[in-house]
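Issue: ligand-bound run for erythose-4-phosphate - logging full I/O for the record.

Environment: standard queue, default settings, no custom constraints.

Inputs:
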Amino acid sequence: MKLIIDDANVEAIKALYEYFPVDGVTTNPSILAKSGRNPYDVLSEIREIIGADAELHVQVISKKAEGMVAEAAKIREKLGTNTYIKIPTTREGLKAMKTLKAEGVNVTATAIYTAQQAFLAGKAGADYAAPYVNRIDNLGADGVATAKKIHDIYRKNNLHTEVLAASFKNTQQVLELAEYGVGAATVAADIIEGLLKNACVDSAIDAFTADFENLVGKGKTMENC
Ligand code: E4P
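Outputs:
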């Protein structure tokens, strides 16, 4: 399962790229709005940090298919042809997906709340489909189960689309989908950090250090003991 950063905070992305095994960045209009800056300025900085080959997913705003296709052209011109165009999975969105895929554009079907929507996005040729796990939970359904069901539908129908699970509230939701082997999860920076955060680990390492320093002296390591 690819692990993608669902964030537009340039500093957070830089830090995660330095330390964590991550595979790209997704954004949406609300995430970009948090930066308070011109979207293309922020996205260009992100592209520079992650490199030309990494996955960057950028969402369109238009409600009509023609507008979505025009936005896709501008996004690719500014951020590279490797950029994934996030298209909301609506009636107009499906039309845009079919057009874009016929032109060889990378497409991420987004705003997915049901397996029905995801099935159609797969049939329209989307490369990824993004079910909103936590938002589905909040509707009283099961977000993780929906993402798994979508993964199964794609595999059983020989559709090449991969699940790009999105909207996570906690690390357990992420892990359950990794265990199932869905294609990718896009996760906010703090939840990626949360995959590692554990006071037991910190205290175990502190105890190892204390024992070692008692043996050979403060500040010593295996390099200079
Ligand atoms: C990704 O495609 C979605 O835009 C995003 O994960 C939604 O996350 P949220 O439900 O935390 O806003």
